[in-house]
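can u pls check wat happens w/ heme C
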Amino acid sequence: MKTILGIITISFLITSCAYNKSELPEPLEEEVNVPKITYTNYVKTMIDNNHCLECHISGGIAAFRDYTTYNGIKTVAASGELKNRAIDNNGVSMPMGYPPLDQNVKDTLQMWINQGALE
Ligand code: HEC
């Protein structure tokens, strides 16, 4: 009798463990795998390396949109113009006078915007 009770207890414990486990929420893939893109760790270098500052700088032909600072580029990330011109290449495509950004650069830029254009 003791043995039977023992077996019942153990199998109850096993199934309740399994049950509890399946109740745990799966971590979202996003939270685990997606790196945080920031101005400091990505966007600043992207701007430096893709001709933007030939024009978007004090004294340049696009000085009214100075992208030498976080606030400068954040403004157009928030307005949607960065996506419009540099990712979707609508209107005058950016970088003006150069081929569009590489797809992986566009994807990372889009991720930065989606994550809130963090500094
Ligand atoms: C050869 C000069 C030049 C280069 C290089 C250039 N831009 Fe521009 N950009 C301009 C000019 C001029 C304007 C303003 C006229 C217009 O809106 O088309 C502009 C406008 C923009 C706008 C729209 C701003 C607004 O608020 O309307 C965005 C966003 C932009 N550029 C992003 C970029 C990014 C990002 C890069 C680099 C990847 C870049 N540009 C490279 C000249 C340039």
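Residues 2-27 form one domain.
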